[in-house]
Amino acid sequence: MIPPRTVLQYPNDPKIYLYVQGEWFCYNPYSHPIGSGAMGTVFMGYCCADGHPVAVKRVIDSYANNPQVRERAKLEASLAFRHPNLIEMLGCCEYAPDHGPIFLVSNFVQGQNIDSYIISLANSNERVQKISMAICSVLDALSFVHAHGMVHRDVKPSNIMVENNSNVRLMDLGIAKTNEGNAYSQFGFIGTPEYSAPEQIRGERDKINKTTDLYELGITFYELLAGTNPMACASEAETLTKQITESLPPSEKIPKKLLKVLLKATEKEQQNRYQTADEFKSAITAALLPEPSKLSRISSWINSHLLVFMGILILLGVIFMAIIFILSTHQWT
Fold it and tell me: Known catalytic residue: 172?
């Protein structure tokens, strides 16, 4: 039995029609792309039934025949998670199961890359606060993904979108984009050198877990606050060495309390990092709290030592009463 076609083109019609999860979608490959990356180009598409917009990512043909890239593309398309901080995937289709073009279809989200969003905050007094809240939204997404047994492995600014200047969405759960447009760096690991954790770089695949994503987000957070990537070097080899050996440098653009949080998130040893996204988020929230006033600190100190004070007062009272008793007894004798 010949399987039904999932990708169709008709004479004199520029559009490509894609059959995904029981529905037909279409897009015009000659239209202006709405996005592009190392692994593919994204076009605006539509549902043929009701016309609602979708995003269609066509994996670059030269990579589509790579079995590893193809496998990860299908994995990304299969992650039909519903979460306000993730892009909702609808599925994928292909000309053939093991070669040729492959298309990923997701719900369309109108927004901008987080780098562009940060630029718009340049003169805002709430810049640090808003960047921190955006990172907390990414942590919500990672908490959800990790709870479903997934590890992103490529958290970086280009994979974070800000929708309508408010809602933040984490993208690309399935395909790990790296430099040179390959699913792997030239040193053989999945990830992007400027953000990758030491265990990724060393190829310790059995050690890649949720703390790996938190390390990458820590580097991302630092870059968004400071304006520069702390691990970027002239060559990939230098970058990888720096990731393994050097801690984050201080920056005048990063408050000390937040830098302390970032240093813990990017510890080289996994057991020294935050162990969950929720723990990382709680640390950020605590670091953003204003410093208490001197009066407040004194009051807090007194409250925390209240029992000690009461004990001392009771002891002094007992001693005072004992002295009175002794003196009165001595007077009568």
Answer: no
Could you tell me where the DSSP H helices lie in the chain?
A: 61-64, 67-78, 114-119, 127-147, 198-201, 210-226, 236-245, 256-265, 277-287, 294-304, 306-332
Q: What is the pTM of this model?
A: 0.76
Which of 264-267's residues contact partners 24+ apart within 8 Å by CB, and which partners?
Answer: 265/214, 265/215, 265/217, 265/218, 265/221, 266/215, 266/218, 266/219, 266/222, 267/215
Rounded alpha-carbon distances, angstroms, from residue 186 to 59, 182, 227, 310: 20, 8, 26, 67
Torsion angle in degrees (nearest 10) through CA of 252, 255, 260, 265: -90
Residue 110 has phi, psi (to 5 degrees) of -85, 120
Q: How far apart are CA 20 and CA 7, in angstroms?
A: 9
Catalytic: which of 140, 154, 172, 213?
154
Instruction: Give the mean model confidence (pLDDT) for residues 71-87.
Output: 78
Q: What is the residue whose two structure tokens read 């927004």?
A: 111
Q: What is the pLDDT of residues 212-266, one digit of tens each?
A: 999 999 999 999 999 999 999 999 999 999 999 999 999 999 999 999 999 999 9
Q: How far apart are the first and last CA of the chain?
A: 120
